[in-house]
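Rather than argue in generalities, we reproduce a single protein record, letters for residues, whole numbers for local backbone shapes, just as it appears below:
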Amino acid sequence: MNINANVGKSVGTWLAMQMILLAAVAAAQQAEGWRPLFNGKDLSGWMVKCQAADREKTFWTVADGTIQCDSVGRKEHNYVWLVSEREFGDFELRLKFQAFRDSPGNSGLQFRSRYDEVWTGGWLDGPQVDIHPSAAMSWRTGFIYDETREERCWILPSLKNSRMDPALKPARHEFKYASDGDGWNTLTLRCHGTRVTTTLNGVPVTDWDGQGVLDNAAHASHRVGLKGHFALQLHNGDQL
């Protein structure tokens, strides 16, 4: 898959709004070539999934040819996902996004995932590539967390809790902010069978064989891990 976007003329406006995901455009690599998943005009092909209390709130919009998320000043919300209508198994995806140094929130790119309307009022099972704008730990962008309800843990790196030791920081790392030149990051995610690789701005971050994890009983029971939807995440209680 491939994601590209244009900032447009309102960069300063969006900087003031402290939005973490300024843009996303995707395409799936199929026999006919790259396929766009975002038309640059509206959220056709995407659906917002959230709990009942958040359904009347608007966090995901389209402006200036970009998908934008804004929850600044509105942290009273649960998880709100923007989910692709299409499902994918093996693919390559390229996501282009902007982040802001003073953003206090966290986000991520869910893949091979599926939303359950019932469990805990609504939940998206499946793995996720972390997108973390905090300057102190932006280096964890590209790591993989498992949102599957029975797992809910870091799977790459494999951790027993959510504490992230700075020693795990990749030897090479590049994370751009909206104030840094063009300010665009390119996150590449490739999945083939149980092998998953992520690259941030051309620098490899993860190369992982998820056999025994992505195809275990928990993932199979929710039909995730090997095939499912993409989603962009607004994290519970975060301002993005």
Remarks:
- The chain has two helices and 16 strands.
